[in-house]
Amino acid sequence: MDVLVVGATRGSGLAITRELVAAGHRVTAFGRTASTAFAAPVPGPGSLRPVDGDALDPEAVAKAVAGQDAVVVTLGISDNPLTVQWLRRSSTAPDVRSRGTANVVRAMRETGARRLVVQSTYGLGDSWAHLDLTWKLVFRFVIGRQFTDSGRQEAVVRASGLDWTLVRPVSLTDDAVTGEPAHVTTDDTRRGLKVSRAQLAQVHAASLADPAAVGATLSVSA
């Protein structure tokens, strides 16, 4: 499958890109520093093509989407969340999730690509009820701006008319894969409040070809 990963150079996007190549897909890794991030080969039977570009640039996104079978979106802000929340400063636009995803949706409609998997945030929608008080305070007062934009992003996805899947992970870690798969539900429940990016990447890769995942919101924990 030809798969575009938007936001491929850091965190979850990097893990997902590696997982997709390992699974044999032909991956286009899109990000502002993609050529640098993927200067070294990524192991696996698939292939990787890095493309430098900004998700907020509609033309760059459209070029990257052309010819793809599926798109995975993992946009976010890597700056200190307190700086973003209270000082209103970040190296990335605070609405990068919603605006970047809107650019992807527009390009997919124009090119005819259908399959869209978008990483969101656990705590949105009815999953809010399954957070403890500490995490509710974190979402409100530490990452509130980003959390709000994730909500706008989900609205863009649900209204897209595409074959979409929303993936809502709990707090992410860089722990290595232990062989235990992530706990995935469609009813907003969770197991723990942490999951590794490696486990999350497996969920993204598996959902691409899973018809049951179309139109579903997956809560991912461990």
TrEMBL record:
Q: Which InterPro entries match?
A: NAD(P)-bd_dom, NAD(P)-bd_dom_sf
Residue span, NAD(P)-binding domain = 7-211
**Which positions, given as ranges, span the membrane?**
none
Q: Which Gene3D superfamilies match?
A: NAD(P)-binding Rossmann-like Domain
Q: Which PANTHER family match?
A: FLAVIN REDUCTASE-RELATED (PTHR15020), UPF0659 PROTEIN YMR090W (PTHR15020:SF50)
Q: What is the protein named?
A: NAD(P)H-binding
Source organism: Krasilnikoviella flava
What is this organism's lineage? Bacteria, Bacillati, Actinomycetota, Actinomycetes, Micrococcales
